[in-house]
Every structure is written in structure tokens, then in C-alpha cells.
Design a protein that fits this description.
Elements (H helix, E strand, L loop, with lengths): L11 E10 L9 E8 L11 E7 L16 E7 L5 E2 L5 E8 L2 E3 L6 E3 L1 H7 L6 E8 L12 E7 L3 H14 L7 E7 L24 E7 L11 H7 L1 H9 L3 E7 L3 H12 L3 H13 L3 E5 L1
Parallel strand pairs: 10-11, 10-13, 11-12, 13-14
Antiparallel strand pairs: 1-2, 1-9, 2-6, 3-4, 3-9, 5-6, 7-8
Bound molecules: flavin-adenine dinucleotide.
Length: about 290
């Protein structure tokens, strides 16, 4: 669905409870976690859904023609990064994991800040913003507690998986299926929630059914895609079992360029491109393959 087709008429106020860096000072990217208190008691969402953030104009004139110039507001989506919770005042709480974006104008060479991401990253405690939603197809926890999950994320695509893994190991009783998380970034410091300073996932490493693998860009080509291929091929047997099993689920989240590498790697593990295409089609149709890419 195109951004301009979302209904931004109904909006809720959300107060910033916290805004903290998730990346360390050495990282080349800045990613921040925002904690919002939504001023709507019945605001509910499922894991894998996103909220819309509406930034009121006017905007700088020198930005690209397709960036909503002339529109009274700027609308962007952000995936919810935690399981549902409540604030001290009993209101719904939503966490977002936001990468500060910028882009270089190819004609002038000037760097421009992305509107919504910079707006969010610059918010302070008690600021009030406008949001709407939630939107998108959730990453459901399978009803069968023996189902296997292959979670593949890139960059801020870790957000829904952080919520999903937490939900499985904290709230689902007697989970017995395998959970395999492949998470990629350019450098170790950009592995969000999984770096030397903040590692949320260590709390699940004791779980018999959980394993996480890190994929980094091959040095020194920092801009090359994270090397999922090596990580996935290293666990080929297990990945193939999950792919071929009718109880196997594959959820993918993050930058859209993850898909090319992933599809090439997975089709390479199978005997033929044809088998890969029909397997993916069957999994997509049954809801066993879901993508949240942007
Ligand atoms: C369903 C969905 C969920 C999303 N979830 C998240 C999330 O959890 N966290 C998050 O940080 N973003 C997420 N995004 C991306 C987000 O909606 C914005 O596109 C992004 O923050 C840029 O918006 P902006 O207003 O700051 O930039 P704009 O003012 O729109 O400027 C965009 C420019 O920034 C650069 N840019 C924009 N997005 C990206 C990107 N993903 N990677 C590299 N460069 C980019 C491009 O060069 C582009 O020209 C999601 C997008 C979708 C569709």
C-alpha cells in the first residue's frame, strides 16, 4: 500500500516518555529507541505492526520533489519494537526503534535530513507527537508450540523480532519449537540490541530452543549487504528443515535489499530455483512466509 493511501485523518496524541540511543558513539549510524505513551486507552496492536507518525509542516523547500512538498504534513511508518505494555498512568505504551536518515541530493551534493526520522530522534521527554494506526500484517506466534521460526532481520528490522522473541519466551507457555534469528548489520556496533553495550538477546541464550546468528558486511566493504549467505549456509541443514517443514515459518524484516541476498541464498540451498519458487509461494499463501520490508 502506498503511503499516500493511508488514512491520516484519525490521529492520537502520544507523549514521549523516553528517547535513548541504541547505537554506541562509534557506530556510523544513529538509532534511537523512543518510548511513547498513547493518549487512547483502547490503543492495541499485534507484534509486527507499525504505527504511523504524522509530522506537521511546513518543510524545508530544498528537498526532493517527491517528499510530500506541498502537503500539510509528512507521514511515515515505524514498526513497534516491544510487546504491549502500560505506563505508570495506565496508558498504552509503544516503543519505536528509529534510524536517523539522511540523503544526498544527487544534483547539488548537499545532504538533507529525513523529515520524520530526524523529527523523532530529536524529540525530548514530555514532547507530544501525532500517531495513527496500527497498520500491517502481524508476525503471529504459531498456535502450535512446536512450530519452528526462522527470523531474518536487517538494521531496524530487529524491532519486531525483539518483541516476538520476548513474547515467546516470557508470555507463551511451554514453547518447544526452534527459534533461529539471523540478524545483519554493517558493523558490530550497528547490531541493534545485540552489540557490546546493549544485548537484549542474552537473556534468551539459555533457552534450549533459541539461537541467534550475526551477519556483518564483509570488511572492508562496509556498504556491501550483510553476509547472511555465510551464516545461513553454515546452518544449511537446519534452515532447510524449517523451510521444507509444514510447521516452519519464515519472517523477514528490515531494509528491502535484504530480500535479494536472502532469496539467492535460500534458493541456493534447495535443489532448484523452481523448488524455491514453489516453496515460497506455498509458504506465502499459508501465512508461513511474511515480509515487513521497507
Ligand atoms: C512498514 C514500514 C515500517 C518501517 N519501520 C521502520 C522502523 O522500525 N524504523 C525505522 O527507522 N524506519 C522504519 N521505516 C522507514 C520509515 O518509515 C521512513 O521511511 C524513514 O524513517 C525515512 O523517513 P524520513 O521522513 O526520515 O525521510 P524522508 O524525509 O522521507 O527522506 C527519505 C530519504 O532518506 C533515505 N531513507 C529513507 N528510508 C531509508 C531506509 N530505510 N534506509 C536507507 N535510507 C533511507 C533515503 O535516501 C530517502 O531519500 C519503516 C517503513 C515502513 C514502510
Amino acid at each position: 500500500m502506498r503511503l499516500e493511501d493511508y488514512d491520516t485523518g484519525e490521529r492520537y496524541r502520544a507523549r514521549i516518555l523516553a528517547n535513548a540511543a541504541v547505537t554506541g558513539p562509534e557506530a556510523t549510524e544513529e538509532v534511537r529507541e523512543l518510548t511513547l505513551e498513547v493518549d487512547r486507552d483502547d490503543f492495541a496492536y499485534a507484534i509486527g505492526q507499525s504505527v504511523g507518525v504524522i509530522v506537521e509542516g511546513p518543510f524545508r523547500q530544498a528537498v526532493r520533489a517527491d517528499l510530500d512538498l506541498g502537503h500539510p504534513h509528512h507521514f511515515r511508518l515505524y514498526t513497534i519494537a516491544d510487546t504491549p505494555g502500560r505506563s505508570e498512568r495506565g496508558k498504552p505504551v509503544v516503543k519505536l526503534c528509529v534510524r536517523r536518515c539522511s540523503y544526498i541530493d544527487e544534483h547539488t551534493g548537499e545532504e538533507y535530513p529525513g523529515i520524520a526520522s530526524n523529527y523523532l530522534c530529536d524529540r525530548r521527554h514530555d514532547d507530544v507527537i501525532s500517531i495513527n494506526g496500527p497498520f500491517g500484517i502481524p508476525f503471529d506466534v504459531p498456535a502450535d508450540p512446536e512450530a519452528d521460526l526462522l527470523l531474518i532481520g536487517m538494521g531496524t528490522g530487529i524491532a519486531p523480532f525483539r518483541a516476538l522473541v520476548k513474547h515467546i519466551y516470557r508470555e507463551v507457555k511451554d514453547w518447544r519449537g526452534r527459534v533461529r534469528l539471523f540478524y545483519g548489520a554493517r558493523t558490530g556496533m550497528e547490531l541493534l540490541y545485540m552489540n557490546d553495550e546493549i544485548d537484549d538477546f542474552t537473556q534468551y541464550y539459555d533457552e534450549d530452543t533459541f539461537e541467534a546468528f550475526k551477519a556483518l558486511s564483509p570488511r572492508p566493504q562496509w556498504n556491501a549487504p550483510a553476509d547472511y549467505a555465510t551464516e545461513i549456509r553454515g546452518r544449511a541443514g537446519e534452515v532447510l528443515e524449517i523451510l521444507r517443514s509444514e510447521h516452519g515459518y519464515v519472517y523477514v524484516a528490515g531494509r528491502h535489499d535484504i530480500l535479494g541476498v536472502l532469496e539467492k541464498t535460500l534458493s541456493g540451498l534447495l535443489d532448484s530455483e523452481q523448488e524455491w519458487q514453489s516453496l515460497k509461494l506455498a509458504k506465502s499463501r499459508s501465512g508461513h512466509w511474511r515480509e515487513l520490508v521497507y
